[in-house]
Structures are given as C-alpha cells and as structure tokens.
Automatic annotation (TrEMBL):
InterPro entries per record: SAM-dependent_MTases_sf (IPR029063)
Gene3D superfamilies assigned to the protein according to its UniProt record, in alphabetical order: Vaccinia Virus protein VP39
EC number from the UniProt entry: 2.1.1.-
GO BP annotation list: methylation
UniProt protein name: Class I SAM-dependent methyltransferase
Keyword Transferase recorded: yes
Enzyme class: transferase
Residue spans of biased composition, Pro residues class: 1-21
Region Disordered, annotated ranges: 1-24
Lineage: Bacteria, Bacillati, Actinomycetota, Actinomycetes, Micrococcales
Any one Gene Ontology molecular-function term assigned to this protein's record: methyltransferase activity
Length: 334
C-alpha cells in the first residue's frame, strides 16, 4: 500500500538540475560536524546516536535537490525522523515538491525483521501494524513523507526510474530483499547519488560487501563508516550490465571473496574507532562461503577470527552458526 502524502502537492515532473555541493559541505566537514549535533530524543531506533546525527546532517547539508530521498527499512521511524529533521532545515529541499520515501512492512510478524519495540507502548495491536506509531512519531513531517507500507517486493514494483539522490538501505537482511534493492533502486543512482548501507557491520549480509566491491570502479567510499553505516557516492554512471549482474548475484564465490577483499583494503575501524571493519569483512567472507554451500571453506575462513576480541565478544553466535553448519550432514545441507 502506498499512502499518499497528507498535503496534496504532486511531485513536479520537471527535471531537476543538480546544484553543486557548497564548498564547506565536504565529507570532512560532515565528519567534523557529527560531534556537535544535538538531536531531541526520538522514537526507539535500531540505529546508533552517531548514525542518527549523520542522517540528520546528510539531510540538512548534503541533499542538493536533484533526486528522491529513499529509505528502505524505516522501522518505527527513528532513522526516518533524523533524515526528515535534516531535510526540513535544508533550503534545497522543497517541501512542496520533494519527498522522503519511507518503505517498510510497518508490521511485526514472521520474516519481517521488525521489532515489537517499534510500538510506542511495546505492545503489538491485533493486526501487528506499527504504522500508526510511525505516523505519530513523524507527525511534523507527514507532508514531506511518502509512506510505502508492505513487502518491498510489492511496494517497489512501480517505483519508477526517477533519480535517487540519497538511498538509506536498512532492509537488505536477506539475499532476496537485497536483489530487489539492487534491481529496483541501484539503477536509479546517478553521479552524485549517495548510498548508505546501514548493515555494513553485519558479517551475515555478505551481499552488501561484495556488491560494494563490484561497484568500486564507479563509486567513492566517502570515509570510515559511522558505526555500522558505510556511505558511498556514485562518481560515474554505473553500467547497466554491472547492475544487472549484482541484482542477479552472478558473481561466483571466488569473485565474491576478491570483491570483499577490495572493500576491506579501503577500511579500517569505523569513525568512532569501535568496529574493526577489516575483521568484520573477513568474517563476511565466511558467510559468503556458507551461502555458496561450502561450510568447510566457511569454517576455514572463520576459525582464525575467533582470536579477534571484537568478533569473539560481539559475534560469538556467528561462530556458533558456522560450527553448526559444518557439523550438519551434507545430505541435510542440500
Ligand atoms: C533494522 S529494521 C529498521 C530500523 C530503522 N531504520 C530504525 O531506525 O530503527 C529493518 C526493517 O526492515 C523492514 N523490512 C525487512 N524486510 C522487508 C521487506 N521485504 N519489505 C519491507 N520492509 C522490510 C522491517 O519491517 C524492519 O522494520
């Protein structure tokens, strides 16, 4: 279901021309500004306070007005609110024309990856929907929002091909959904578009890492991730066949591992110093092998990483999963 914005103006069909980013709004300035941002408390969110600040600054300072703002995986609205607050303060964001598109199931249930904490009172209603709670949290910004409630497979089917300037991806928890994101949203990126992968610190989602590797000839990683979120900017038009290959997940395992290694070479710790991304991406390689049906290789990749304190402490369940997969008889794996 697509809920039309509560205020009537329909988006202008006129092409929008990119305005240059102001000189003081470099990525260095973005990182420098993070410490000084103070946001009022928002609803329960699964993004960190640093990511909230970064989303706010992206909306306020970096949005130039040449394309849509799209958030995939809005949950209870914590990340959406930060983005909306920033956009509302950005003179280049025209509230009568520009839209922040928010996609989510907006309900809890099997396979949704949505948390009961998205309900304001922590209790799901009979239909499991937290859309009313989301709307309450975003009450001051409903006019600039376009809410797309339901499975991304349906809600993005007719999303069109207008350029996306800012894409916040917090939805690609499964390969199926990542393929939707890659097939329907990455082709809408143009030079200057910014992509944020909120789950970049999740080793279980290797498609985020090897797809970023596949895009490296056409993108620039802007700097260290802010907590879990990696940002990149499109430098040159991305060839359609490259995007189609990513959407079909065509790369074989060896290629995936090489692509992840290419990204690893660009990263150290996240901006706060808390997340060792090279180690996280090394563990991601093990999950790429697991997804490719090779638990032995997965364990060979993962085993030495048990000595990395961050992974041993924060990702112990990942090692358990890989050990269990190894122990499973081959007949049950297929
Ligand atoms: C990690 S949560 C989002 C957290 C949110 N950004 C925040 O600030 O707390 C991931 C969201 O993705 C949504 N989601 C997962 N798969 C989806 C799908 N196929 N279609 C629509 N939404 C989906 C879930 O409903 C969930 O709310």
């Amino acid at each position: 279901m697509t809920t039309p914005p509560s205020r009537a103006p329909s988006p202008s069909p006129a092409p929008r021309s990119p305005a240059p980013a102001p000189a003081d709004r470099t990525w260095a300035a973005h990182y420098d500004a993070l410490a000084g941002v103070e946001l009022p408390p928002g609803p329960y969110t699964q993004v960190s306070e640093w990511e909230r600040r970064s989303l706010y600054l992206l909306g306020r300072d970096r949005y130039r007005g040449f394309g849509d703002v799209v958030e995939l995986g809005s949950g209870g609205g914590g990340s959406t609110l930060a983005l909306a607050q920033g956009l509302a303060e950005n003179p280049r964001f025209d509230r009568t024309r520009d839209r922040l598109h928010a996609y989510d199931f907006f309900r809890v249930g099997r396979g949704t990856f949505a948390s009961p904490k998205f309900f304001s009172d922590g209790e799901p209603g009979a239909d499991g929907s937290f859309l009313a709670d989301f709307r309450d949290h975003l009450a001051d910004y409903l006019d600039l929002l376009e809410i797309h409630a339901g499975d991304l497979e349906q809600t993005s089917a007719s999303a069109g091909d207008a350029p996306v300037e800012l894409l916040h991806v917090d939805v690609a928890k499964t390969e199926r959904v990542f393929r939707l994101v890659a097939g329907r949203f990455l082709p809408r990126l143009v030079p200057g578009s910014t992509v944020l992968h909120q789950d970049f610190a999740s080793p279980r989602l290797p498609w985020l890492h090897h797809s970023t590797g596949a895009l490296l000839p056409w993108i620039d990683v802007v700097g260290p991730p802010v907590r879990s979120t990696l940002a990149f900017v499109v430098r040159e038009p991305i060839p359609a066949d490259v995007l189609a290959g990513i959407a079909r997940q065509e790369a074989g395992l060896d290629e995936q591992l090489a692509l992840i290694a290419d990204v690893q070479g660009l990263l150290g710790a996240d901006w706060t110093g808390g997340i060792p991304f090279r180690d996280v991406l090394e563990l991601s390689k093990a999950f790429a092998a697991l997804h490719a049906g090779d638990p032995e290789r997965a364990w060979r990749l993962a085993e030495p990483l048990q000595n990395v304190p961050y992974l041993a402490e924060r990702r112990a369940d990942h090692f358990d999963q890989l050990r269990r997969a190894l122990a499973e008889p081959a007949t049950r794996r297929s």
